[in-house]
Every structure is written in C-alpha cells, then in structure tokens.
Specification:
The complex is a heterodimer of chains A (254) and B (72). Chain A is mostly helical. Helices cover 72% and strands 4% of the residues of chain A. In chain A, strand 2 and strand 3 form a beta hairpin. Chain B is built from two helices and no strands. In chain B, helix 1 packs antiparallel against helix 2. The longest helix of chain B is centred in the N-terminal third of the chain and has 34 residues. The chains are: A mainly alpha (254), B mainly alpha (72). The interface between A and B is medium-sized, with 18 and 14 residues.
Chain lengths: 254, 72
C-alpha cells in the first residue's frame, strides 16, 4: 500500500513537471504577463526560424547550398501539398502557413531536448493559434462571400426549406468545434508524448534495480524517436487543416 | 480510495479500444489499396496519416479527461 501511494504521488509529480514554471515575474497593469520557461522555448523557436531563413535568403544562389535546399523544400512542400487548389491566390497565404508550420514544428522538436518545455504542450499556446485561425477563416469567409452569402453557403443547395432551421445550427456548431479540436489535438499529442517519456523514466525510480534499468531507457529511446515523427505529423496536420479551412472560405461553391 | 482513478482508467481504456479498432481498419484498407495500386502509395499514405490523426485525437480527448480526473 505504501509503494502504491508513493507511485500515485509520483504520477502527480509527472504532471507537475509538465506545467510551465515562472522564470521572472512581470505584472502589466494587473495582468499576469510573466515569462515562463515555455515562453523562453517559444522565443528560442522564433529566433531559430528567423535566423535560419534570414541567413539562407541573404546568401541565395542559383545552385543552392544544403541549407538553402532545405528552406526551398519546406516552401515547395507547403505550396504543393496545401495550396495547389488555390493556384495564383494561394501565394498570398504561403507566408502565413509557412510560419505556422515552422513555429509548431520547431517548438515540437525543441521540446524533445531535455530541460526545454515545448510551448505547444500548453493549451494556452495551441488555443491562441487555433483562435487566430478561426478568426482569420471566419473573417475571410465573410469578406469573400458577404455576410448573407456566407450563411447561405453553409447550407447545401437544394435542401428543403423546413430543414434549414435544423441544418444551420449544426453547421454553426461545426464551425465553432473546429478551433477546439485543432487546439486540443496539438496540445494533447505533445502533452501525452512528454508524459509517456516521463512515466517511462519514473519506472527507473519505481523498479529500484540496475538489472531492469535498460528496459525503461530503451523504451524511452523508442518513444523519443516516435515523438520526432509525431512532431512532424502534428505540425503538418495543423497547417493542412488551416489551409483546407482557408480554401473552404475562399471557394464559396462546394 | 477515490473513484476518480477508476474512472480515469476506464475512460482511457475504452477510448484506446475504439481508437485501436479505428486505426486498424484504416491501415488495413490503406494496405489493400496500396497492394492493388502500388503507384498511388504516396497519396494513400498521406491521406491515411491525416485520417489517423483525426481518429487519434479522440483517444487524446479521453486522455485529457483522465488526466483531469487523476489530478483532481
């Protein structure tokens, strides 16, 4: 019973480890604007992205170097995978989607370095990104189709009039559910990955034996490798869904 | 003893059951498609991964719920 109680306390500690801790406190007119350790990781991610792209674009050559090829591959990847249906108009959305993709990818990957807490494992960060996308898509839809046309296009053509009061709320709820699922998907994936890594590491303390030591460590290596894959997939999914929402808002007729 | 731990276990277990079945079906159908038409394997793989991410998210919702139950 004693060890069981200890293991429960252990699990509590794991979740506390994934909470951001204050580095230094800033109070902006009564609003808590403190710098947390995950904020520092976010700044580091932004700094790395800006540094990489500014260095690469300054020394752009016709015969690309290795880093230039990487940047070009990233741009080409977004263009071919996501913006293909929009054609010329898609070019306008490339910078937004590329920065979204790079930010999520780099912060996911930075989180795998021990000691750095990824900002994407915090619901506030993913929620902000998702609400940003939501406002952008709704505003774009109203701007492109007009306020009346926007609501009209929610209902498929040829639907009986009696069904409209039923379909419209469902469609509106669907629109509101989008940012929620975007935010929770990214947050939960990153949070769960780090929780699994920490649970495996806590087995070392629970087993208290050197013979069994390689098992959690090997598991940890495997999970960490899988996390690299997850980091790419989640960044791709978030950007892909954003682009499909943008395409849906621009193209009124489905 | 708190029933919250039991609830957390049941929640994540049932969610993992459904998600496992869903991802299994997805992968089986994708494999069928690839073996029928190996030239379309790239496209099928991308679509499959996106669909898996949707299914997986359901399990992660349950994970969030069980974490809330455990830490309550």
């Amino acid at each position: 019973m004693g060890s069981y109680q200890a293991s429960i306390e252990n699990k509590m500690n794991i979740i506390e480890h994934l909470q951001p801790t204050k580095v230094f406190e800033i109070n902006l007119l009564g609003v808590d604007a403190s710098i947390y350790n995950s904020t520092l990781t976010a700044f580091l991610a932004i700094g790395l992205i800006v540094l990489f792209f500014s260095v690469v674009s300054r020394r752009a050559r016709i015969i690309p170097s290795a880093s230039q090829s990487l940047a070009e591959y990233g741009i080409e990847f977004i263009r071919s995978q996501m913006l293909e249906p929009l054609g010329k108009e898609g070019e306008k959305w490339l910078p937004f989607l590329l920065s979204l993709f790079c930010f999520i990818l780099v912060s996911n990957l930075l989180g795998l370095i021990p000691g750095l807490l990824p900002p994407t494992s915090n619901i506030n960060v993913t929620g902000t990104l998702a609400v940003l996308v939501f406002i952008l898509v709704q505003g774009l839809g109203i701007k492109k189709q007009g306020l009346f046309g926007y609501f009209k296009n929610m209902i498929p053509a040829g639907v009986p009039v009696l069904l409209i009061p039923l379909l419209l709320p469902i469609e509106i709820i669907g629109q509101i559910a989008r940012p929620f699922s975007l935010a929770v998907r990214l947050f939960a994936n990153m949070f769960a990955g780090h929780a699994i890594i920490l649970v495996l590491l806590s087995f070392i303390i629970m087993f208290k034996s050197f013979i069994l030591l390689p098992l959690p460590l090997l598991g940890d290596v495997a999970i960490s490798a899988f996390e690299v894959f997850i980091a790419f997939i989640q960044a791709f999914i978030f950007t892909y869904l954003t682009s499909s929402y943008i395409i849906g808002a621009i193209e009124s007729e489905h | 003893m708190d029933l919250g731990y039991l609830g957390a276990g049941i929640a994540i277990g049932l969610a993992a059951l459904g998600t496992g079945l869903g991802i299994g079906m997805l992968a089986a159908k994708a494999l069928e498609g690839i073996s029928r038409q190996p030239s379309a394997s790239g496209e099928i793989r991308t679509t499959m991964i996106i669909a898996i991410a949707f299914v997986e998210a359901l399990c992660l919702y349950a994970l969030v719920i069980s974490l809330i139950l455990v830490t309550k």
